[in-house]
Design goal:
Length: 284
């Protein structure tokens, strides 16, 4: 009987040992997985921090070059490459944008909103995708750049200049644009600055709204397709649509012939196709 008991005890010890070995193997595997995940997170955070710091440093450098350009005396002999062609004669580039323009001739302007991180050059190419993933120096960068819709024209002036930028969690690019969801912020920041490389401009905020990028065949007002108004009726219809969408009444209704700028960024709270939009009317 004792021999049988010994055999059973031995089998039990072997089973326990096997189970403990399995658990130890799982534990080590879990530890290894946690270490890999932790290293991945640390690596991602490090890259994220580096890219944001790089963007901040570049932004400061762009602003410095802009200031240096404004102080540089202009001579009659200086010539510049034409940015766009059309029936209207290309005006001279403003002195403060000469240095930046000569570094990258895709520069089309500069946008600035007080008490935000928004103080950036605005780019324009024939490809609306390019500056989603490239910086001012044309390096790959997930922050991208602020850029104007390819179909907008600042010389033969479009009715509405649409400007896009990423909504970065760090606050970079248009990460602070949604401060305008708060009406009190609007009341303290009713204007923003948008200069083209040819002339300065101050814009009164007139509409603030959330929207969606809609299906191509869906019949509805699509703010991102409103660039030129071919008639007063069309202009007023678009203004009425934006006024209806606006989060609050700014007290301003732009008359036909107004020059507009639309600032657009992503709004993930509404899903992948959500957008947050601020529209301004030129006052100076």
């Amino acid at each position: 009987m004792s021999g049988l008991q010994d055999i059973q005890d031995e089998k039990l010890r072997a089973a326990v040992a096997k189970e403990l070995k399995k658990r130890e193997k799982r534990r080590r595997g879990l530890i290894a997985l946690c270490i890999i995940v932790a290293c991945g997170c640390i690596g991602y955070f490090s890259v994220y921090t580096y890219m944001n710091r790089k963007t901040q440093n570049e932004s400061a450098n762009w602003a410095k070059l802009k200031d240096e350009g404004g102080k540089k005396p202009k001579t009659d002999e200086e010539k510049f490459v034409i940015h766009r062609t059309g029936e209207t004669e290309t005006p001279d580039i403003l002195p403060e944008y000469e240095i930046l323009y000569n570094k990258n001739k895709k520069l089309i302007g500069w946008v600035k909103i007080a008490d935000t991180n928004i103080d950036y050059p605005v780019m324009q190419t024939v490809d609306n995708e390019y500056y989603l993933t490239h910086d001012f120096d044309q390096n790959k960068d997930k922050n991208g750049c602020i850029f104007m819709d390819k179909d907008c024209d600042v010389i033969d002036r479009s009715t509405n200049l649409i400007i896009y930028g990423h909504h970065m969690k760090s606050g970079a690019m248009f990460g602070h644009l949604d401060k305008y969801t708060d009406e009190s912020f609007f009341k303290e920041h009713q204007t923003f600055q948008f200069d083209t490389i040819y002339e300065k401009g101050t814009y009164q905020v007139i509409y603030v709204f959330k929207a969606q990028v809609l299906a191509e065949d869906e019949i509805a007002f699509k703010y991102y397709q409103f660039i030129d108004a071919n008639s007063e009726e069309e202009f007023n219809s678009n203004m009425a649509a934006m006024a209806e969408m606006s989060m609050y009444d700014t007290g301003v209704t732009p008359p036909y012939g107004s020059e507009l700028v639309t600032l657009s960024t992503c709004d993930r709270s509404q899903g992948a196709e959500g957008r947050f939009v601020v529209v301004g009317m030129r006052t100076a």
